[in-house]
């Protein structure tokens, strides 16, 4: 690599401006955050804006059958690109950095190369993958899962949203049912820049995380059905109360995570009682359970113990239970040479760096199935994410994006 490319740096003001412009779509009033659940009108508007930026840069744009969008800057040789990317859908209470950073930093890397008149040996691509969050359509990382052939397109298109919409119909409706084939082109390598979304880097005063893997994820939806009845007249010993079973389960998984110890986590994030009224013993309760661990055996143990507790508690309350798996991904370990590359580049750029696992799911964990993959983390203020208050300082964003630029340049030069 010539001296001139090792000296290249991104333009943080341009990156910040794009982050702000994208966050203005679906903005949550009075906050810095945004709500662009996958395949909603807000997601469409966000997608359109990013496509406009890809067009402005003259990228070769493709949209595949699950709505993943890729923009390619041609290199000097034919062959698969060095790809970066992430997602631009958000949870309903999203911050402006989760996912968006990886995509917009990818545009920034490409614009930096173009402005400097640098054409890397290999092509360079930036992609945004459909429905990474999985908050509206489960599972999470859906677009990248389909991209790598982990789920058939036909199956994905039939997935139902929490609001009853069908994924394929929503894709058509917003104009992102594309024609590029899935599984998609296997990249030469994949790099994802993302905010940490946890407290570790900030607490330790470290600027860059070299992510060595992603913990396993288990999501299920549980529906408990009992006997709806009058809250005042039904003696406690005669109740079949699904609300009680749901509450007991939430209490149990918390205790289970504490007993199994770090890094086991457990969350009941969505609960719906029917009919959800003050004076009615619920007819049914539907709730989600999110269990995660870096150790597959411990995660399986947590799943089995929850399952026994659920069955016993529901039986004791004379309720019936139905469970549905929403997502199940084993822990992923990234390619060692890619992790080391991120560490080396960070050190060369003068940043403190730490190897660490990811607690959140990411598109990179899917791409890791098909090509050498790594992730770069930047610190999250107070470890807050999936919350409009999510924040990363401009200097940390700049550091992370420059590590991605130099990492991609190295990968693209060989
Ligand atoms: C998805 O991004 C998750 O980690 O929940
Ligand atoms: Mn994300
Ligand atoms: Mn997220």
What is the CA-atom radius of gyration, in angstroms? Answer: 22 Å
Q: Give the tally of structural domains.
A: 2
Helix content: 25-40%
Shape: elongated
**CATH topology descriptor of the largest domain:** Aminopeptidase
CATH architecture identity of the largest domain: 3-Layer(aba) Sandwich
- Low-confidence sequence ranges: none
What is the CATH domain class of the largest domain?
Alpha Beta
Pattern of helices and strands:
HHHEEEHEHHHEHEEEHEEEEHEEHEHEH
The average pLDDT is: 98
**CATH homologous superfamily heading of the largest domain:** Zn peptidases
Count of β-strands: 16
Short overview:
The chain is an alpha+beta fold and 414 residues long. It folds into 2 domains: 3-214 and 332-412, Aminopeptidase (3-Layer(aba) Sandwich); 216-329, Alpha-Beta Plaits (2-Layer Sandwich). The protein has helices at 3-6, 12-23, 41-56, 100-115, 142-147, 153-157, 167-173, 200-204, 242-260, 296-316, 336-348, 363-367, 394-413; strands at residues 60-63, 69-73, 82-86, 124-128, 189-195, 208-214, 216-225, 229-230, 265-267, 271-274, 280-281, 284-293, 320-329, 332-333, 353-358, 373-378.
